[in-house]
Design goal:
By secondary structure, the chain is an alpha/beta fold. The chain has 11 helices and 10 strands. The chain has helices at 18-22, 31-42, 66-71, 89-96, 112-119, 123-139, 162-173, 191-201, 221-230, 259-268, 277-290, and strands spanning 13-16, 48-54, 81-86, 101-109, 143-149, 179-183, 209-213, 215-216, 235-238, 255-256. The strands form 2 sheets. The chain has an 8-stranded parallel β-sheet. Helix 2 (31-42) runs antiparallel to helix 11 (277-290), helix 4 (89-96) packs parallel to helix 6 and helix 8 runs parallel beside helix 9 (221-230).
Length: 292
């Protein structure tokens, strides 16, 4: 399969996802500590900061203070966009009222089993939710980003192939969605499936931005990033030290893509990321106090 790397932009968007790293921690991180950490991350200059979520506090108790955290963020002279995760209309209404939030993220699973587990809705119900959330986002002047959960396969036996992914993306794109993150929810993506998806999805959709949200083991991060980049992906999610991941992976080594690995990959290839690396090192030190 021919790669697209020869025709690619040298500018890479790195999205830091502290929300994903923190949400599974059982011990509540004090609001002021979260604010300190997120402000340190904002100074790094990431394209986007996935900072919190407006979901049921019963479902994600760690992030029940997202609205309070938002009020403590120092956004003056900051170009980083803020992204908040929502799972239904109620959460979207809550998030959309904040001018500081630029992007609403919604997890849309192409696995029926996981969609029900993750958002307590079928895929058909989820499509209706997307329509409502899109209207709220448009009204609030925000972008709706869709995570294609289980985008690279699933462990439930639900059918998966690129045609299924394409069908849902086409339907969502027809609703006005222009940014998709293909999510490797349980770490099953390999170079073949990554090349297969990005090379088939990107060329016929020039007005759609595709990104990668990988979960990975320490010895597979490079092949995932390298294959995605060489097949046209210019947007990557990561977390400092790869913290977090899917609890269903049942493998302590399967976590999020480490941001430092993304930075390493890009700097070695002279790809433009626009980050303050000294500020990143400072944020890493703070992360060690709360992500453990």
């Amino acid at each position: 399969m021919d790669s697209l790397v020869g025709n690619m932009d040298k500018s890479i968007k790195i999205i830091e996802c502290p929300r994903d790293a923190m949400q599974g921690l059982h011990e509540f991180i004090p609001t002021e500590t979260k604010i300190e950490y997120l402000n340190a991350l904002l100074r790094v200059g990431f394209d986007t900061l996935d900072f919190g979520s407006f979901v049921s506090p019963k479902a994600i108790p760690q992030l029940r203070d997202t609205a309070e955290v938002l009020q403590g963020l120092d956004l003056e002279h900051i170009d980083t966009k803020l992204l908040a995760i929502v799972a239904n209309e109620r959460g979207a209404k809550d998030a959309a009222q904040y001018e500081e939030i630029s992007i609403l993220g919604y997890p849309f699973s192409i696995s029926e089993t996981f969609q029900i587990r993750n958002t307590n809705a079928t895929i058909a119900e989820s499509i209706k939710r997307v329509q409502v959330i899109k209207e709220l986002a448009d009204k609030g002047g925000k972008t709706l980003l869709i995570y294609i959960s289980m985008g690279f396969g699933n462990p439930y036996g639900d059918e998966w192939n690129v045609q299924i992914v394409q069908r849902w993306i086409e339907q969502l794109a027809d609703m006005g969605i222009s940014v998709f993150m293909l999510s490797d929810t349980v770490g099953v993506a390999d170079p073949d499936s990554i090349a297969y998806l990005f090379s088939e999805l990107i060329p016929p959709n020039p007005n759609v931005e595709f990104g990668a949200h990988f979960h990975t083991t320490p010895d597979t991060w490079f092949e995932k990033v390298d294959t995605a980049y060489k097949n046209g992906c210019l947007r990557f999610d990561g977390t400092i030290r790869g913290y977090g991941g899917c609890p269903m992976a049942q493998n302590d080594l399967v976590g999020n893509m480490p941001s430092e690995r993304l930075i390493e990959y890009c700097t070695e290839r002279d790809l433009e990321i626009g980050l303050d690396l000294a500020a990143y090192r400072t944020a890493m030190k703070i992360s060690q106090q709360i992500l453990h």
